[in-house]
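Progress note, sequence design subtask.
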């Protein structure tokens, strides 16, 4: 494999070429799919650097290096799913540790933390991290991490990463940022002091609703070995074909993110003026509550839009009537998707907590795709009568 390209290239150039622009053995411009479970050793005590694909695979390695390059990190680890990545990261903590978490993040993360790791002695506080006073109030002597989504899912709240990093580092802890919504094309949390960045690569990174993956990027020599050992031991490492699909998706990341954002600006503005829509949540609005912060720490806003309907009875009508927009889970693919968080992405979150965070029965989340914006709006207009 060829050495990585110059790291001072623009993000769109890095996305296209990645850390492995071509296969050094054959000159193949597309990184090969090394669909092999095991690798031959040249001799006792000698290795090509790969022995078993659960431990390491050349295709996955190319992806891990490329994501590290894009996120301005030193190390990347790729997993079968985003939840696999987060689960691996939790292995850095011990019973008794306390973690402060954004309250309106993906419901699967809540389920993983509360139902599977709380019984092992980890403690979690769920708060609105867009308000720094809330973080200060929630902190305990045993607080070891802040785990934030910014923007948050689905209420699009923005958290000050630099201030969070300063706060938690003074306590000897970690800042973990889920960067799924913005991707490294629009935001680089490590540059703002984050210790670990996590992604659901099934979303914008791969971008075509055809594969699952999860990723951790960081720069810690201290913890790289422990994370790599946990990845190997738990066995949730990403397979070579899915790694290749994600690498292929990265090549068009810049083009797709720009188009998602362009469309979202138009669609969000249209929704805001619709008589059946009570409120629209989009970080690209000039009057977003944390708009100035968003523009300071990110280069864009992606294609995620959430909105409240005035009339609850319209929810099933819209979900039944949309045709171009698909009523489905997930986000970040080229196709526009509409989701009902109450029953889908946030169904695992207790009602009181869900309502407090803003996820009500009248909330819909829209992942704006790359179709013609007038066609997306026409579909919504037909559904919102």
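Output:
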């Amino acid at each position: 494999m060829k050495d990585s390209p110059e790291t001072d290239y623009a993000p769109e150039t890095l996305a296209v070429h990645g850390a492995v622009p071509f296969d050094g053995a054959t000159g193949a411009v597309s990184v090969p799919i090394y669909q092999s479970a095991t690798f031959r050793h040249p001799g006792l005590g000698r290795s090509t650097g790969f022995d078993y694909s659960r431990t390491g695979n050349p295709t996955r390695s190319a992806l891990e290096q490329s994501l590290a390059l894009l996120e301005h990190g030193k190390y990347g680890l790729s997993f079968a799913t985003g939840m696999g990545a987060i689960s691996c990261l939790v292995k850095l903590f011990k019973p008794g540790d306390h973690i402060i978490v954004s309250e309106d993040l993906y419901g699967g993360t809540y389920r993983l933390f509360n139902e599977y790791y709380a019984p092992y002695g980890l403690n979690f506080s769920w708060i609105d991290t867009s308000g720094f006073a809330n973080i200060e109030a929630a902190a305990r002597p045993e607080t070891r991490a802040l785990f934030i989504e910014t923007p948050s899912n689905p209420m699009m709240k923005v958290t000050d990463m630099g201030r969070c990093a300063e706060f938690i580092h003074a306590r000897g802890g970690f800042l973990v940022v889920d960067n799924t919504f913005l991707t490294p094309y629009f935001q680089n949390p490590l540059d703002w002091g984050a210790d670990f960045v996590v992604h659901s690569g099934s979303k914008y990174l791969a971008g075509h609703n055809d594969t699952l993956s999860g990723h951790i990027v960081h720069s810690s020599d201290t913890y790289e070995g422990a994370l790599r050992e946990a990845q190997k031991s738990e066995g949730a490492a990403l397979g070579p074909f899915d790694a290749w699909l994600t690498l292929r998706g990265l090549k068009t990341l810049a083009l797709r993110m720009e188009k998602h954002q362009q469309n979202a600006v138009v669609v969000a503005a249209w929704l805001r003026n619709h008589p059946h829509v009570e409120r629209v949540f989009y970080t690209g609005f000039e009057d977003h509550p944390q708009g100035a912060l968003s523009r300071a720490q990110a280069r864009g806003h992606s294609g995620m839009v959430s909105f409240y309907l005035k009339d609850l009875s319209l929810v099933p009508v819209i979900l039944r009537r949309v045709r171009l927009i698909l009523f489905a889970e997930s986000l970040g693919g080229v196709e526009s998707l509409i989701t009902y968080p109450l029953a889908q992405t946030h169904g695992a979150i207790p009602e009181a907590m869900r309502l407090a965070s803003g996820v009500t029965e009248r909330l819909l989340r829209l992942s704006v795709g790359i179709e013609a914006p007038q066609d997306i709006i026409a579909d919504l207009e037909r559904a919102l009568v």
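Residues 1-5 have pLDDT under 50 and may be disordered. Work on this subtask will continue into the next period as scheduled.
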